[in-house]
TrEMBL record:
Domain DDE: 78-211
GO biological process terms, semicolon-separated: DNA recombination; transposition
Organism: Cupriavidus necator (strain ATCC 17699 / DSM 428 / KCTC 22496 / NCIMB 10442 / H16 / Stanier 337)
Main function: Involved in the transposition of the insertion sequence.
GO molecular function: DNA binding
Keywords annotated in UniProt: DNA recombination, DNA-binding, Transposition
Tagged with keyword DNA-binding: yes
Protein name in the entry: IS6 family transposase
Amino acid sequence: MINAEIAKVLKRLHYPLEVMLTCMRWYVAYPLSLRHLEEMMAERGISVDQSTVHRWALKMLLPALNKIFRRSKRPVGKSWRMDETYILVRGKWKYLYRAVDKGGNTIDFLLRAQPDKAAARRFFEKAIAQHGQPDTVTIDGSASNLAALHDVNAERETPVTIRQVKYLNNIVEQDHRAIKRLTRSMLGKDFRCARILLGGIELMHMIAKGQMQAHEERNPSAAEQFYSLAA
């Protein structure tokens, strides 16, 4: 049975769901361009142009799959490691805020145009709204991240413990690499496109790390878990 949210999307589409989900998984799991996907589908006897795949990703499937995944994401720990990295979008550097717990599980992410206190605060507010308040947040020497956390603490009865210990953030810095390795094919996209595609990449990365609650006794593969979001 197809998920109700995916069923709404399918009313506007004319390709088999299996074909669309396969394209979406390949796109967010591997460093492939839209042209690569068009050629790979053609080799399998399926005619679909790259603009169609792009439309599936941005306007329909990836936003819906992300929304569904959020409801089945495993709880994360209360000790967070937060850092920002940079992504080149249409020739300009944009800033991806990310956090993982001490076990390496992704907590949240947010793409912003500027690396400032407002961006860092928006990230923390988003992450806390989704996962609850952490006990500790470890950051590097960033003054804007520290100021944002102080602002967040000013509004809470129980403040978050802040640690500025760079070596403890190695785990999130290493985790950045898995995401940035897949962003090369989106360099020409605009900010909105990059934000949606990054969401899909982060989604597949979380599934690969075992962050999706499985409803079966067996241990399904990452691909099977991705496809099950539509069921």
